[in-house]
Specification:
Length: 252
């Protein structure tokens, strides 16, 4: 058991407030089941390949599916990230996540935008939009189909921005409406202007270099194989996998 991933008592204490109440028969040991779920997601394994130390694979899958559909894992990340204490700056960016054929094999009328998967130059993808703090820790996550523009993600994440001094973003977020919205919130934009702008936009180049922290964050999230490659058809379940990775890597 020492070679397996196992949640500590301190980590379980942080997660416990987000657990749903048990009705009727008590749940199977939370530490064992959640440790098994994390092990499967991190290594990109099939549920039937779960090690015996984590208990029956059907129990792991049942808990994962049920809690994902209820948004439990997403609330875990949102709740823990709410204690970030960031006051200086946040960063916004997006990245593509490859969709495996098992996530794209449903009938066409049920696919596409409903599953948040779309075709790009790199194939079938889902796009992850994120906000992170100055330490590179994710504060909010949002998924769309691959071809969706960065503007859509920015608009969705705009209302969740904390009260900070700066927002760092790449040229994909250079839009007058976005700059105006940030200004209304009292946030200064450190975003390079697009090349086709008639009037150049100045930005703090030295500050902009810190934006690499959100790129590093995406890289660490993609170390989890069920994040780097989407196997889940349901977008809510896939978002749960991303949120769980963020919780374990950054907030426990």
């Amino acid at each position: 058991m020492s070679d397996l991933y196992w949640l500590t008592n301190e980590q379980m204490a942080k997660l416990a407030p987000f657990f749903p109440k048990s009705h009727g028969k008590p749940r199977v040991d939370d530490t064992r089941v959640l440790s098994g779920i994390i092990f499967i997601n991190r290594n990109g394994l099939r549920w039937r390949d779960a090690l015996e130390s984590y208990g029956p694979h059907k129990t792991l899958y049942s808990r994962w599916k049920r809690w994902s559909e209820k948004g439990i894992f997403a609330r875990m990340m949102a709740g823990l990230a709410a204690e970030h204490g960031e006051q200086k700056s946040v960063m916004i960016d997006a990245t593509y996540l490859k969709a495996h054929r098992t996530a794209t094999s449903m009938a066409a009328k049920k696919g596409g935008c409903a599953r948040l998967i779309g075709r790009t130059k790199g194939g079938m993808n889902t796009k992850l939009h994120a906000i992170c703090d100055s330490k590179g820790r994710p504060l909010n996550l949002f998924v769309t189909a691959g071809p969706v523009s960065d503007y859509i993600g920015a608009r969705a994440l705009l209302g969740t921005l904390p009260k900070v001094d700066w927002l760092l973003g790449d040229r994909g977020y250079d839009a007058d409406w976005f700059r105006d919205a940030l200004k209304d919130k009292g946030i200064r934009a450190c975003i390079p202007g697009r090349k086709q702008r008639k009037t150049p936009v100045k930005h703090d180049r030295r500050r902009y270099k810190r934006r690499n922290r959100i790129e590093i964050m995406f890289g660490r999230l993609k170390d989890w194989r069920r994040v780097a490659t989407r196997y889940d058809r349901c977008p809510k379940v896939f978002l749960s996998a991303i949120a769980l990775a963020a919780v374990v890597i950054y907030w426990l």
